[in-house]
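Appendix C: a fully annotated inverse folding record. The material below is reproduced so that readers can follow the format used throughout the book. The structure is listed first as tokens, followed by the designed sequence.
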């Protein structure tokens, strides 16, 4: 898998819709970067993995309450 993914590729990887990923970005909840050339939004797999794992752990903590 390439180092950087597009919004569509990232949404597919996370198994969510692109609109859901956009909403999470607007809320400041999803990790992303801008490529300097063209100001294109890109995502690194490692950042998505860490973010998704954190959300799973937070969900497990909330389930115990």
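Designed amino acids, in order:
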């Amino acid at each position: 898998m390439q180092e950087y993914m597009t919004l569509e590729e990232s949404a597919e990887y996370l198994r969510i819709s692109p609109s859901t990923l956009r909403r999470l970005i607007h809320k400041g909840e999803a990790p992303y970067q801008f490529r300097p050339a063209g100001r294109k939004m890109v995502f690194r797999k490692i950042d998505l993995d860490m973010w998704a794992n954190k959300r799973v752990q937070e969900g497990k903590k909330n389930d115990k309450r």
